[in-house]
């Protein structure tokens, strides 16, 4: 159906990009890459360490460099980090493939991320407030995806992956 074209998952932290991406790759018989994971392997640093060492700006540069390399490959599901949409340049890489936005309400993100310590932007802040403000800033950018999958209440990753696959034919030219 996709003829080898890559599928890029975008959306807020906690939307399930990493979890659903793995499942989608299985269902599509595609390879799977999580961009944050590739960054961690390439730099031998955790995302937390990278933010501490390089700042967010340094992390964004690495993220762009990694995306530039990943997009040269085909037959991949790529789960991006939630902030990938912030850099205009990244869109030129994402547009090599089909871009799917997992749109999950802040309330649900909050319940998923309340105990999380792996996302530097969410530490030592009012979590709900921070998620709200990030969503407000980023929503217009996520909205540039080819496909939006709205997840209003908890569904299994398998179910969500199936919904994505069912929706893809509606946006293929
Ligand atoms: N469909 C789902 N149902 C229940 N929990 C989920 C679902 N998708 C993700 N999660 C959980 O939410 C958290 C964030 O998921 P993750 O895939 O890391 O999101 P992202 O990569 O978009 O930040 C994880 O603890 C994960 O297990
Ligand atoms: O939204 C963001 O700015 C970020 C999202 C994270 O990935 P997930 O979206 O997979 O949590 C990770 O790239 C980093 O902590 C920054
Ligand atoms: Mg992730």
TrEMBL record:
Reactions it catalyzes: shikimate + ATP = 3-phosphoshikimate + ADP + H(+)
Entry note: cofactor:
Binds 1 Mg(2+) ion per subunit.
Identify the residues that bind Mg(2+): 18
Query: Which PROSITE patterns has this protein been placed in?
Result: SHIKIMATE_KINASE
The biological pathway it contributes to is: Metabolic intermediate biosynthesis; chorismate biosynthesis; chorismate from D-erythrose 4-phosphate and phosphoenolpyruvate: step 5/7
Q: What UniProt keywords are attached to this protein's entry?
A: Amino-acid biosynthesis, Aromatic amino acid biosynthesis, ATP-binding, Cytoplasm, Kinase, Magnesium, Metal-binding, Nucleotide-binding, Transferase
User: What cofactors does this protein use?
Assistant: Mg(2+)
Q: Name one Pfam family in it.
A: SKI
**InterPro entries assigned:** P-loop_NTPase, Shikimate/glucono_kinase, Shikimate_kinase/TSH1, Shikimate_kinase_CS
Where does this chain mainly localize? Answer: cytoplasm
**Domain of life (superkingdom):** Bacteria
Gene3D superfamilies from the xrefs? P-loop containing nucleotide triphosphate hydrolases
Q: What does this protein do?
A: Catalyzes the specific phosphorylation of the 3-hydroxyl group of shikimic acid using ATP as a cosubstrate.
- PANTHER family associated with the record: SHIKIMATE KINASE, SHIKIMATE KINASE 1, CHLOROPLASTIC
Q: Which family does it belong to?
A: Belongs to the shikimate kinase family.
Q: Which HAMAP family match?
A: Shikimate_kinase
Q: Which protein are we looking at?
A: Shikimate kinase
| Gene name for this UniProt entry | aroK
